[in-house]
Design a protein that fits this description.
It is a multi-pass membrane protein. The chain has about 950 residues and is α/β, with parallel strands linked by helices.
Length: about 950
């Protein structure tokens, strides 16, 4: 029978729990002095409340006792960790050999592949104790991955200071495998057998479902596909990948419902046994212990229907757990558990009653308010951790919620029967398969919604800011006067944002032809065709989630050709995500099948999706509607070496002919590969994918041969390889190219009409930018081939201007008048001004160099004639090389002037040069250009 009056909760232990938690946070993130001050201040408040009868007597006494107790307990633990001998040795970076006892299971650190290094788990993190101090071990995966909590091992390594925020005294970087390994406790062996059984039984499912089921049941994410992790994070379903109070509530609730006919006490005892067994199965990690207590609170409050005891139970759980292990106070998972449970206990019932009053059925109302309350309550913590806010989390949790409980229960059953009968476990796993597939589908579709997650400041500042915004909105909604205003603002924002994000998305831009995807430290470039939703993909980047997200935003569902320029991890890591859910015609690879592990992985992935592998040769062409690809290289026979440089130099080099111009795709070719391409074919292109992420191993002659107007550099933010090289960027910019980088500009789209659209990572929208004009095409009249050759020496001209500027500064105090010369076109003038073959213009000793105001175009027009006659390179003089009238630094940074005012320039043809006889009396040669037609 529904209650007529709201439940009055008991908040007497809440101040004490909050004081203990605040003391732990102050001690972990500040110092032991801060913990002592916080705890004593809480005790003083409790004493004042008890003496002046501010609160209930029990509430004041609890705060009076818990404050000083937390100050002494937490402050003592923090002081011990800071002054332990291992901390002093860690500050000096000493090496040591220790016998430690493991307290947690090894947790793998997934590293993104780059070059010849395969992506995967290379190191593990383990917590341990030694000599009364807590340690964090960073060990290699080989030899350490299969260890269990409770084992004692001997380790060798070097000590380092910990990151802070916990009670660890040092970080130990382990060298080599463990030594003197002792057997684990029997219950840990039992739990490990059941976990392995679940993992093996899940192998009958597809790769994505096989990795998700163990993570959903016991938090085992070792075989999780990175793409699923990224999608669940964007959709707000990441909490399903970790053991939480919901798992324990589901298991204990299922056991209680099955045994309730035996009576309340036998059913409660059975649920408690299931609780203990699940804790042992998942492992005695702090997160599992948190989930045990929080799950028990949720079971008591929601399943057994004793809502009045929910708040005291939650406060008691916080008191007991934080005083037992103060490090829990600084763990984000602990905060998520407490805040979510508090929202379910305090907020969800009120919202459910409000919906019921408006005619919503009981079950539907609870199904709506539970994910909504939990999502809103935990949003500040999630935003502080991930730096983004999911806008689809409520809907995604609402749709995914009904299948979580069946999948979890069936997974636990499979783990329980796996050691006894593996075939039965596989059958149970097959039954759970549809539910797990539904979770994968929900996460994928939710993450594909435009604007599913928006950027938000991370860290403490982001969490506090979102908390303030949430509290302000909730408070304003409670008052009738401001409720209309808040609703109007929310509706207005919805009306504005939805058309921008969904109806008329800002990305991709209409008419795009080339997109360089921001995939981190790797390459992924998309070439559009005239067919909608069809494109060619060149390389797949290191991360499956990044390239999949890029293709989704572009709306690409059909890929006739995937080109893998070479088999390094940062170019093939996302292949599986590209092949999944899309129609792929073929995968093209280069002649060198190294490294071997990457070639095996490509073969396995393509066979699993029934996609054929082709090996194009130099000179072959691929024709598609609106797109043509020509294979430029490599033209050398492959050499069986797996060195990074060799593999890079054998990258497939393609030239794409698009409606936005020619695009040269260079893979990671370095010096030898670029030198082999020089002189083979025409390398000229409007767009250049800069080789090897802009590394310094690039030939200036190669970049000059391409002469791009737009240079795209695909590079990761803050990479440790020094990419891109400042020298390469300077060479490209000096040649007139517009250089764009994915680490700073995000996704880059090239459109016809020399337009570039950038999509930044921070979600600020797109910036339309035109590339620099092609310096090979001048709008003004031209002088002919000789003038073109002179204009090609722009760098030498700028250097000559710099020399004149320096000489002008050196001669500022010399006031000698310049000796009169017959004329600037007289041969003697060149001698007087110190012209030397190959060295530009040099002033004679004692002469003053001045910037003249004569006609620049006319004087510059005579330089080609002098060059054609003398045969020696003549650099520009101090007049006529800059666009404006500036000199020095201002003039050097500008482009050559258009020659429009001289008669030779207007004629547009090269003038014939007459070689007059040398005068016996003169000391030079006079050049007389033959007059042309006007």
């Amino acid at each position: 029978m529904p209650r007529k009056h709201p439940i009055a909760h008991d908040y007497r232990l809440v101040p004490a729990a909050a004081a203990v938690w605040a003391t732990a946070v102050a001690g972990l993130f500040l110092s032991w002095q801060a913990a002592a001050i916080t705890g004593l201040a809480a005790g003083a408040i409790g004493l004042a409340a008890w003496r002046r009868a501010w609160w209930n007597r029990t509430c004041a006494i609890a705060l009076l006792v818990s404050g000083p107790l937390a100050a002494a307990w937490v402050g003592g633990h923090v002081l011990k960790a800071d002054t332990h001998p291992l901390r002093l040795a860690a500050n000096e970076g000493r090496g040591t050999t220790l016998t430690v006892e493991l307290t947690t299971r090894p947790k793998g650190i997934r590293a993104a592949g780059f070059g010849g290094t395969q992506a995967g788990v290379e190191n593990v993190v383990i917590r341990a104790t030694a000599n009364g101090a807590q340690l964090v071990l960073l060990a290699p995966a080989d030899g350490w991955r299969d260890l269990l909590p409770g084992q004692e091992v001997t380790v060798k390594g070097s000590l380092a200071p910990p990151r802070g925020g916990d009670l660890a005294s040092a970080l130990l970087r382990v060298r080599g495998p463990p030594q003197d390994v002792r057997p684990p406790p029997f219950w840990q062996t039992w739990a490990d057998e059941h976990r392995d059984g679940l993992r093996q039984a899940s192998a009958v499912l597809d790769d994505e479902e096989a990795g998700l089921l163990p993570a959903l049941v016991v938090g085992d994410t070792e075989r999780m596909v990175p793409r699923i992790v990224e999608e669940f994070r964007t959709a707000g379903l990441a909490h399903l990948l970790a053991v939480s109070g919901a798992n324990l509530a589901i298991i204990c609730g299922a056991v209680y419902l099955l045994t309730r006919r035996l009576g309340p006490r036998p059913a409660a005892a059975a649920a408690f046994v299931a609780l203990v067994g699940f804790v042992v199965l998942a492992g005695p990690e702090p997160s599992v212990l948190r989930a045990a207590v929080m799950g028990a609170v949720a079971l008591l409050a929601l399943v057994m229907g004793r809502q009045r005891s929910a708040v005291p139970s939650l406060a008691t759980a916080v008191l007991v757990l934080v005083l037992h292990d103060p490090a829990l106070g600084g763990e984000p998972g602990f905060a998520l558990s407490v805040v979510a449970t508090a929202a379910l206990v305090l907020v969800a019932p009120k919202w459910a009653r409000a919906l019921k009053k408006r005619g919503v059925p009981n079950g539907v109302a609870e199904a709506i308010v539970v994910p909504m309350a939990a999502s809103l309550a935990t949003a500040p913590v999630v935003a502080g951790l991930s730096g983004q806010v999911s806008l689809v989390s409520v809907v995604a949790n609402l749709v995914a919620g009904p299948v979580v409980a069946p999948a979890t229960v069936l997974g636990v059953v499979a783990a329980a029967v796996a050691p006894l009968s593996p075939h039965v476990a596989e059958v149970v796993t097959h039954v759970a398969g549809p539910a797990v597939s539904w979770l994968v589908l929900v996460g994928r579709q939710a993450s594909a919604v435009p604007g599913a997650a928006v950027g938000w400041p991370d860290g403490w500042s982001g969490a506090i800011a979102l908390t303030a915004v949430t509290v302000a909105v909730v408070l304003l909604l409670r008052f009738k006067k401001t409720r209309t205003l808040v609703v109007a603002v929310l509706v207005g924002g919805f009306v504005v944002l939805v058309p921008l994000r969904v109806v008329a998305p800002v990305w991709p831009p209409d008419g795009w032809k080339v997109v360089s995807c921001d995939v981190g430290q790797g390459d992924a470039l998309v070439l559009a065709t005239d067919d909608r939703e069809t494109a060619v993909l060149v390389d797949t980047g290191p991360d499956p989630g990044a390239v999949d997200r890029c293709l989704k935003t572009l709306g690409i569902n059909k890929i006739p050709l995937v080109v893998l320029t070479h088999l390094h991890a940062d170019h093939v890591g996302g292949l599986d995500a590209v092949l999944t859910g899309r129609a792929v015609g073929a995968v093209a690879v280069g002649p060198l099948k190294e490294p071997a592990w990457a070639w095996r992985e490509v073969g396995r992935r393509t066979r699993a999706h029934n996609v054929r592998v082709v090996e194009p040769r130099a000179g072959e062409r691929f024709a598609l509607p609106g797109l043509e690809l020509e294979v430029m290289g490599p033209r050398r026979p492959p050499v069986a070496e797996d060195e990074n440089t060799t593999v890079n130099d054998y990258s497939l080099v393609l030239k794409a002919y698009t409606r936005a111009g020619r695009v040269l795709l260079t893979g990671d070719v370095e010096l030898a590969g670029q030198a082999a391409l020089l002189g083979e074919r025409d390398l000229n292109a409007e767009v250049l994918k800069v080789p090897h992420h802009g590394s310094r191993y690039s030939l200036p002659a190669f970049l000059e041969a391409v002469r791009p107007r737009v240079a795209l550099v695909s590079v990761g933010t803050g990479n440790r390889y020094g990419h891109p090289s400042a020298h390469v960027i300077d060479v490209l910019r000096a040649a007139g190219a517009l250089v764009l980088r994915t680490d700073k500009d995000g996704d880059l789209a090239v459109l016809p009409g020399n337009r570039i659209v950038r999509r930044r990572r921070d979600g600020l929208g797109q910036v339309v930018q035109r590339a620099l004009p092609d310096r090979r095409r001048h709008a003004g009249p031209r002088m002919g081939a000789v003038a073109d050759q002179l204009h090609g020496d722009a760098v030498a001209a700028r250097r000559t201007q710099a020399r004149f500027r320096l000489l002008h500064l050196r001669n500022t105090r010399r006031r000698h008048p310049r000796r009169h010369v017959p004329g600037d076109d007289h041969a003697r003038a060149a001698t007087d001004e110190g012209r030397v073959a190959g060295r530009g213009v040099r002033p004679r000793r004692g002469a003053r160099v001045r910037r003249r105001t004569a006609n620049r175009a006319g004087r510059l027009a005579r330089l080609p004639l002098q060059r054609a006659e003398g045969g020696s390179p003549v650099a520009a003089t101090d007049r006529g090389v800059a666009r404006d009238r500036g000199a020095g630094r201002a003039a050097r940074g500008r482009r050559p002037a258009a020659l429009s005012s001289h008669g030779l320039a207007r004629d547009g043809r090269d003038r014939a040069v007459r070689h007059p006889a040398r005068s016996q009396s003169g000391s030079g040669t006079r050049v007389r250009p033959r007059a042309g037609r006007r």
